[in-house]
């Protein structure tokens, strides 16, 4: 090799080495993460000796259940979470589909996707376990509605359910998971086995969870209309990369089981385990106070303010251990609650004194990171122990749609998120 050739070879080597050492300015794909965009907190079925019906069939057999949910965040890929948490036998899902929801029992046909589990079209879930589907490509908008269809080929008791869905589900004979419109033989107002929907989102996405009882679950809100207060809060936060999850369970209590396990038992599962969790709103305690002396808990002991405060302090400590902001919400007025039902005695003057003591502690103790005064937002200024009539659903316990909206609009978003 002559001198000229050696010079060119050396120059080429230097160029190669320089290129390898120089930083790359090519755009790299943004890393994505899975975020829960919708939940329905799982509950175990209760026995027939409880005052309220389960509102589910004895079993599902060779039937398809189609359930619709409005998501919080949108995304380009979706997966679903099914739960057999309270089953004592394996749960077999013969087939499952996900699609954008259409009208009623229908779907947007072009959006229909077959769900698989480890590449298989069916799955058997062990007792006590959940399962995640494989991801599918499905563009879902923020506040979009998604339908999940599950085929149950063998006799299947709905051992894991969510009692108060505020959304109509449809049941039809045979495997109709891919049907454009499910031919329904019956409907449900409960959830069965479907506990979460997840989407791929930016890694900085945050999550806010509302944990509570029927006033968070949305009892008495208009069916199929998404008018619960967490729904309205979700609308207020659209565009901020924040998921809002409703972990309410109608009838839930802080300290005791029955309509779902107590808040202390489910706090990790329903709140702290959520990806991107940044804040939790706690609105719970009215059932602890009021079930005593009613058919809901005829032999239960009276709950005092001090009992609830001990429970709240446990939730606060556990949230802070995970660096999660925890916001306390005052208990809403309930004078006259359920007085024209078999649940007479739900409200008494003694129970009201406990509510007032609990609310005073929430407002003034400084132990929560922030406070939302739902009591002040919903009470009648002329009678502070009652809901404002315009906000009352009619049972004097649960707000109606207008009351739920007023609750959500009363939330200071900066205080909720801890931002200046």
Which descriptor suits the 3D outline? globular
CATH class of the largest domain: Alpha Beta
Report the mean per-residue pLDDT as an integer.
Answer: 93
Number of domains: 2
Our measurement of the CA-to-CA distance between the termini, rounded to an integer number of angstroms, reads 70 Å
How many helices? The count is 10
What is the radius of gyration computed over CA atoms, rounded to a whole number of angstroms? 25 Å
Question: If you had to describe this structure to a student in words, what would you say it looks like?
Answer:
This protein has 420 residues and is α+β, with helices and mostly antiparallel strands. Helix 3 packs across helix 9 (401-409). The protein folds into 2 domains: 29-201, Jelly Rolls, CATH 2.60.120; 204-420, 3-Layer(aba) Sandwich (Rossmann fold). The longest helix has 19 residues, at 3-21. It starts with a helix and ends with a helix. The strands form 6 sheets. The protein has a 6-stranded antiparallel sheet with strand order 7-6-11-3-13-14, with no helix packed on it. Strands 1, 4, 9, 10 and 16 form a 5-stranded antiparallel sheet that branches. Residues 1-27 have low confidence and may be disordered. The protein is built from 10 helices and 23 strands. Helix 7 (349-364) links the parallel strand 20 (325-329) and strand 21 (370-372). GO terms for molecular function: hydrolase activity. InterPro entries: GDSL, GDSL_Rv0518-like, SGNH_hydro_sf. Residues 1-26 form the signal peptide. It holds the Pfam family Lipase_GDSL. Keywords: Hydrolase, Signal.
């Amino acid at each position: 090799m002559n001198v000229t050739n050696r010079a060119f070879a050396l120059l080429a080597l230097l160029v190669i080495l320089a290129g390898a050492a120089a930083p790359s300015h090519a755009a790299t794909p943004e890393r994505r993460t899975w975020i829960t965009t919708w939940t329905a907190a799982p509950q175990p079925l209760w026995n027939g000796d409880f005052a309220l019906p389960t509102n589910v069939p004895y079993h599902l057999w060779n039937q398809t259940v189609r359930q619709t949910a409005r998501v919080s965040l949108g995304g380009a890929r979706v997966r679903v979470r099914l739960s057999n948490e309270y089953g004592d036998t394996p749960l077999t899902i013969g087939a499952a589909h996900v699609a954008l929801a259409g009208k009623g029992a229908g779907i947007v046909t072009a959006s229909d996707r077959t769900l698989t589990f480890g590449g298989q079209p069916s799955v058997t879930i062990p007792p006590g376990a959940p399962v995640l589907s494989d991801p599918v490509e499905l563009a879902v908008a923020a506040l979009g509605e998604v339908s999940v269809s599950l085929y149950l080929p063998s006799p299947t008791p709905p051992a894991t359910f969510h009692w108060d869905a505020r959304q109509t589900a449809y049941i039809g004979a045979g495997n109709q998971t891919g049907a454009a419109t499910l031919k329904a033989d019956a409907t449900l107002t409960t959830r069965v086995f479907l506990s979460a929907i997840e989407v791929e989102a930016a890694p900085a996405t945050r999550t806010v969870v509302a944990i509570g009882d029927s006033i968070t679950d949305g009892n008495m809100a208009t069916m199929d209309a998404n008018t619960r207060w967490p729904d309205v809060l979700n609308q207020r936060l659209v565009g901020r990369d924040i998921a809002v999850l409703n972990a309410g369970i109608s009838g839930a209590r802080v300290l005791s089981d029955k309509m779902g396990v107590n808040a202390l038992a489910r706090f990790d599962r329903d709140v702290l385990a959520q990806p991107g969790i940044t804040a939790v709103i706690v609105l719970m305690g009215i059932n602890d106070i009021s079930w005593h002396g009613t058919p809901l808990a005829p032999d239960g002991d009276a709950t005092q303010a001090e009992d609830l405060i001990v429970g709240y302090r446990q939730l606060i400590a556990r949230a802070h251990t995970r660096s999660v902001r925890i916001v306390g919400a005052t208990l809403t007025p309930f004078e006259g609650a359920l007085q024209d039902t078999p649940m007479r005695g739900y409200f008494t003057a003694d129970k009201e004194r406990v509510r007032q003591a609990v609310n005073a502690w929430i407002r003034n103790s400084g132990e929560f990171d922030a406070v939302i005064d739902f009591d002040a937002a919903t009470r009648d200024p002329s009678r502070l122990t009652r809901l404002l009539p315009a906000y009352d659903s009619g049972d004097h316990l649960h707000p109606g749609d207008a009351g739920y909206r007023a609750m959500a609009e009363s939330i200071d978003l900066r205080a909720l998120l801890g931002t200046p």
